[in-house]
Amino acid sequence: MQTRLRTVFSPLSFAAYLAWGAIGWELLFTRWDSPAWLDAPAPGWLLAGLHLAFLALFMSVVGNDRASLGRLRLRVALQFGIAFALMALARNSTLPILLILCVVQVVHVCPPRPAVAIVLASNVVMFLVYSELWQFRSALVNTLMHMSFQAFAGLTAWFGLNAERARDALAAANADLVATRSLLAETARDGERLRLSRELHDVAGHKLTALKLNLAALARDPRFGEDAQVALCARLADELLADIRGVVLQMRRGDGLELGPALEALASPFPRPRLHLQIAGDARVASVAQAEAVLRAVQEGLTNAARHSQANNLWVVLRREGGQLRLDIRDDGRGRGELTAGNGLGGMRERLEAIGGGLDVRRTDTGGVHLQAWLPVAA
């Protein structure tokens, strides 16, 4: 909601509101000619109502990524209709500026080719308004002039939209790299921890065992059997060996990869949905392949929630159940219809099945997407 408000009240949107307000002022508080086909000037309340309806539709489209594209395109089409209705009721030179605002929105809700076709069709209608309703002698010149303004605004919006998409793609790629780096660092730390535990067990444990045997031999020697220093050394060797075994056991219990930092880094470039991460203390993966499968599953959940579900929140829970790790990913989207597995979900399923896991995908009662994945604890 906050992102939507920032877009609605952004400087670019404010410029559109300023243009709308200037057009309304001239339409309602200055003199204008009535088109020849009307017997009497259109009532002010009708012009004001249409003008306010245009603003309401404009604000309902700006920054609205929760509505479907079909609804957004319908609202833009209604704005075109209102603009032409106003031009049919009042002969005012500023009214065609409303079409520029419409063109900027068309670029955001339609692919390039349909957008160009819509702009061309709207200018054909505007030419007819100039020539037939307003009876301008230079109808073609006026149409081409306004078409150039529309083209400038539309191309600027298109380049800005492409730059925004490139920025989002770059941010997602950077987050992927940061998450991978975090995973590699955790892999290196885990490998170093395992190496140290083996060194302690094999080297220090071996030498302490040899020391205990030698102290036991000294204790059996009549010359040192009653020596308190020998007994003290034997007791200290026993305690040190027990301590080392405890440290080795603790290090091996902690064996596995910590995924929290990598998952948080993966979600950092997404302004929406917000990630709610919960990882149980004993839910640690045993291999890089398992870590990558979990990482890509959460990444796909984030991407789907942002692009398709229009979700605001994504809950990720990783826990251990018996001999399995369970990954639960759920969003609060408002999708409809049956879920179809695309390349992303198909790749996720294949990656999990390759390491002995699986995937179940379904919709929640509210229309969100619920992904349940599982994989074996052992690598």
Structural summary, described in words:
It is built from eleven helices and five strands. The protein has 379 residues and is an alpha+beta fold. The protein folds into three domains: 136 residues, no CATH class; 61 residues; 120 residues, Heat Shock Protein 90 (2-Layer Sandwich), CATH 3.30.565.10. It is rod-shaped and about 130 Å long. It starts with a helix and ends with a strand.
Short description:
The protein is α+β, with helices and mostly antiparallel strands. It has three domains: about 1-135, no CATH class; about 195-255; about 255-375, Histidine kinase-like ATPase, C-terminal domain (Heat Shock Protein 90, 2-Layer Sandwich), CATH 3.30.565.10. The protein has helices at about 1-10, 10-30, 45-60, 70-90, 95-110, 110-135, 140-220, 230-255, 260-265, 290-310, 345-355; strands at about 275-280, 315-320, 325-330, 360-365, 370-375.
